[in-house]
């Protein structure tokens, strides 16, 4: 009579559970790898998030520490550089590399907070307007039309100047200036979904409005809202950089990329590095987000996926014939 050991069963079950949990991640990365531009953008964004999270551990210097003796030192690969300053120093002798790392934290904090606040309020308003219709829809959309008609940048500058510049002020003001985009998109999708048979069937059988919205409508909004949120992320990064450049954004001793560009603009003719590296960081971040958002839009829309699949099949057939 043989006795089967069960000591390895929990370990086997744990491995199987781990593999099953990692399977969606593997499929996501495998599909993303087919679009090299989208994969490069996603990889840069992941690196940016990690750098922002671990900036205190990575940064070689305090980003606010000044040294008059080390001011405007060039990057380490140029003559006259200062030891320990990889990308050189700015006009106050602060380490540019350290300020880039901490500036990423400011940009990501503002952008994520604004997208979360504006998206939450805008989606809720769009759901109510699109599903309720009638007077409720008319009232919400008239408010949207009035705010859209007012220049967004002017409204933002006015509110920040009145309230006073700070990181919290930027988040609140930018969220207030951008919620209408989500409302319009969500309202349009909800109004088209209300005409579909599965929504009408749910209403006929007596489902509550809250259940229909949560169980049937919201899942259909995930794909377009993901793409919209990522694209709006780029606009918020640029808006934060512009406000900081004008002195109405992040305030010293905190740092941001826009603030560094503003500080280095008066020295760009004698020292290009204080303004170049923050500008490159902004440009590369925006480009990476757009590349990833383009892949996400294609991968979440069935029509676009069919087009990409057809192009891939046609290219494969041409190579086979050749």
TrEMBL record:
Transmembrane segments: 37-59, 108-131, 221-250, 270-293
Residue ranges that the Swiss-Prot or TrEMBL entry lists as coiled coil: none
Record bears the keyword Cell inner membrane: no
Keyword Metal-binding: no
CDD domains with a match to the protein in the record: TM_PBP2 (cd06261)
Domain ABC transmembrane type-1: 104-293
SUPFAM superfamilies: MetI-like (SSF161098)
Cellular component GO terms, alphabetical: plasma membrane
Gene3D superfamilies: MetI-like (1.10.3720.10)
Bilayer topology: Multi-pass membrane protein
GO annotation terms (biological process): peptide transport; protein transport; transmembrane transport
Cellular localization per UniProt: Cell membrane
InterPro entries per record: BP-dependent_transpt_permease, MetI-like, MetI-like_sf, OppC_N
Family membership noted in the UniProt record: Belongs to the binding-protein-dependent transport system permease family.
Protein name: Peptide ABC transporter permease
UniProt source species: Celeribacter ethanolicus
